[in-house]
Amino acid sequence: MEEIIHIKIPWGYQKDGYVLRLKRSLCWLRQSLCNFFESLKSILMKEHIQMQQSKSNLCMFYTDKAICLVHVDDFLFFAKDDADIDAVLKQIKKCGLEMTIEDDVAGFLGVLIKQVGDKIHLPQEGMIDKIKAMGLEEAKHVTISAAFNCL
């Protein structure tokens, strides 16, 4: 974290005249996504991984053997040989980043990817079912903006 952030002490632990100073980013801070991305970028560009960040798409990193696309905290890796992806993942894990590896990209970002003929369909049926199951069809939505220009 670059900036100094103070928060109120949680209820039940409050002490008059005191606040807490954060040492790390918390998931509900506007800066959290930027902090995560900067940490990820530094990991991907480390000497032993040596990925380069694309100048035209700042969420794309690549080597001569693999490509990594990043969306928030989801990554897609592409390579001609699975061993090249495995090598990159092994190096990333050595840097302390925990990952869950999926078998395919069918549910990436909660969107099913279907190819029918020469067209690609991106239905979100699973997400719609979850919203209906929770009874949230008529729920009030709230827009929360992320920090601007974090890339």
Question: What does the model show?
Answer:
- The protein is α+β, with helices and mostly antiparallel strands.
- The chain contains three helices and eight strands, in the order ββαββββαββα.
- It has helices at residues 32-44, 82-94, 125-133, and strands at residues 6-7, 20-21, 52-53, 60-62, 66-71, 74-79, 114-116, 119-121.
- The strands form three sheets. It has a four-stranded antiparallel sheet with strand order 3-4-5-6, with helices on one face. A two-stranded antiparallel sheet has the order 1-2.
- Strand 5 and strand 6 (74-79) form a beta hairpin.
- The longest helix has 13 residues, at 32-44.
- It starts with 5 loop residues before the first strand and ends in an 18-residue tail after the last helix.
- The model has no long low-confidence stretch (mean pLDDT 79).
Specify the structural class. Answer: alpha+beta
Count of β-strands = 8
Our estimate of the beta-strand percent is: 15-25%
User: Taking strands numbered 1, 2, ... along the chain, how are they ordered across the largest sheet?
Assistant: 3-4-5-6
Rg calc: 20 Å
Report the total helices: 3
Question: Any idea what the shape is?
Answer: flat
Largest sheet, strands/sense/barrel: 4 strands, antiparallel
Q: What average pLDDT do the residues reach? A: 79
Helicity level: 10-25%
N- and C-termini, Cα separation: 15 Å
